[in-house]
Amino acid sequence: MPDDIGDELPHALNVLWGRAKPKGRGRTPALSLERIVAAAIALADEEGLAALSMARLAERLGCAPMSLYRHVAGKDDLQLFMLDAAPGPPPEFGTAPADWRGSLTRWAVELLGVYLRHPWIVQLVSAPPMDPGQLAWLDAALRSLGGTPLDWRARFSVVMLVLHYVRGAAQLRTSATAAPEEMADGAYTALLTELADPGRFPALARAVEAGVFAPHPEAGPDDDFRAGLDHLLDGVGVAIERAARA
Amino acid sequence: MPDDIGDELPHALNVLWGRAKPKGRGRTPALSLERIVAAAIALADEEGLAALSMARLAERLGCAPMSLYRHVAGKDDLQLFMLDAAPGPPPEFGTAPADWRGSLTRWAVELLGVYLRHPWIVQLVSAPPMDPGQLAWLDAALRSLGGTPLDWRARFSVVMLVLHYVRGAAQLRTSATAAPEEMADGAYTALLTELADPGRFPALARAVEAGVFAPHPEAGPDDDFRAGLDHLLDGVGVAIERAARA
DNA sequence: ACGCAAAGCGTAGGCCATACGCAAACTGGT
DNA sequence: ACCAGTTTGCGTATGGCCTACGCTTTGCGT
C-alpha cells in the first residue's frame, strides 16, 4: 500500500483516507478542515449550491478568503469533502440480513432523507465515488442483499437501480418545491393544464386532467416514494426468485 | 388562453410555445435563436458544460458577447432552450401500443442515447420540465402504457421510475469514462481494490474482488443497461398484472 | 532566546454574466 | 430619393468569482 493514492488525484482523497502527514511545529491553526467543511455544508443547505463561494464561506467563518486554501486545495476539493461528510453514516445491519427488502427499503428511505436535507448533493455528484463516506453507503446497500442468491454483479445492478431511483425522487421533490421564483404548489399543474394541448400531447393532457400533478388529496409525498420503490423491489424480487431456482 | 404564460416566468417559455410577436421591420438579423442554441449545444457537447460561457459562445459564432442578449434573456434562458432542443423528437408509437414493454424499452434506449450524446443534459435538469421538447418525451412515455390497465397516477410513477433509471445510468457511464483527469478504464477498479478494506467495507471488497467494476469480458455496456431495465420492467409487469386482476 | 515551519491573508490578475446606451442597418411610407 | 421608425449589433463598465504568489505573523522545538 503506497503512501499516496495517486499523484494526479485530488488532494482531498489522500486526506480523506487518513494519509495526511502529521504536522508538529508551526502556528496554532485557528481554522480546521472540519470547521470549513461544516460551514460549507451549512451554507449550501441554507442558501443553495449557487450561493456557495469561497468568499461567502470565508465571511461566514470570519477569516479571509485565501485562508481557506491552506486547508483545501481548491473549490473542487472542498466539494469532495462536503460529499464525503454530509451523508453521515449509513443505517446499520449485518452482513446478510434475513429481510433484504426491509433492509434495502430502510436504506433507501434514509438516503432520501439525506438528499432532502442536502439537496445540493444530487447536483454535485459527477465522478464515481471514492471517498469513505459514500463507499460506506454503497457497502451497506450491498450488504442488504447479502442473504440473497444474487451474484455480485446482479447485486450491484440492483443497488444502482435503487440509488438512481432515490436520487431522481429527491431531485423531483426538491425541484418541485423550490421551483423557479417561488412557484406555488399548484402553479405547475395550472401551467401544464394550459400547455398540454390534447391534440399534441394526448397522454399528458389526460394525466393532467386526472390530477396526477396535483398534490395528493390524502397521504403525504412519502407514499408516492414508497409506491415507486415497491414497484422497483417487486422487480428485484422476481430476479431473486429466478436466481434461487437456478 | 392568455397571450402570456406568466409574467414572472422565464422569457424562454413564451418563445418556445410560439407566443413571440412576429417582427417585420428593422435591421436584418445576422444572428438567430436557432443558430445560437445550436452553437451552444455543440460547444457543450464538445467541451463540457463548464466550458459554455457567453464569451466563448460568441467567439464561436463570430459576434460580440453582448449580441447574444438580443435573442436570449440570459444564460438561464439559453439553457432552457438547449434543454428543449437537444433531445429531438421522441420515438413514435400510437396512443395505446399493444406491446408496452417493447415501447417503453425503445423509449428508454433512445433516451439513453440522447443523454450519452449530450451528457450535460443530466447536469442541467433542475426544474420540472415545461418546454415542448421535454413534454413530448414525457407524453410518449405515458402513451407507451396506454394499453395497460394502470391508472394515470401509476403510469406516471412508472415513467418517472424509468426516467430516473435512464438518467442514473447515463450519469454513471459518462462520469466513468470522462472521470477526473483522463482516468483510464481500469483505474477506478485499481483504486477501489486498494481502498476497499475488507474489514471496513466487507461487501464492497467482495464485489470488487468479483470484478463487478471491471469492464465486461464480453458484451458491451449496453447489456448492463438492458439488464437493469429488465429488472425494473419486471416490477412494472407485476404491478400491471395486479391491476388487471382488480 | 532564537530560528524556522506552518498558518493567515493582501494583492492582483484573469475569467465570468450582464445593465445600459449608442451606432448601424434595413423597411415602409411619402 | 428621402426620412422616420424600428430592430439588431456591440462597446463600455461593474461587480462577482476563483486562485497564484508571496509576505507577515505566530508559536513550537531546541
UniProtKB/TrEMBL annotation, chains A, B:
This is TetR family transcriptional regulator. Pfam families: TetR_C_1 (PF02909), TetR_N (PF00440). Keywords: DNA-binding, Transcription, Transcription regulation. The lineage of its organism: Bacteria, Bacillati, Actinomycetota, Actinomycetes, Streptosporangiales. InterPro entries: Homeodomain-like_sf (IPR009057), HTH-type_TetR-like_transc_reg (IPR050109), HTH_TetR (IPR001647), Repressor_TetR_C (IPR004111), Tet_transcr_reg_TetR-rel_C_sf (IPR036271). GO terms for biological process: negative regulation of DNA-templated transcription. One of its GO terms (molecular function) is DNA-binding transcription factor activity. The keyword DNA-binding applies. It comes from Microbispora catharanthi. Residues 53-72 bind DNA. Residues 30-90 form the HTH tetR-type domain.
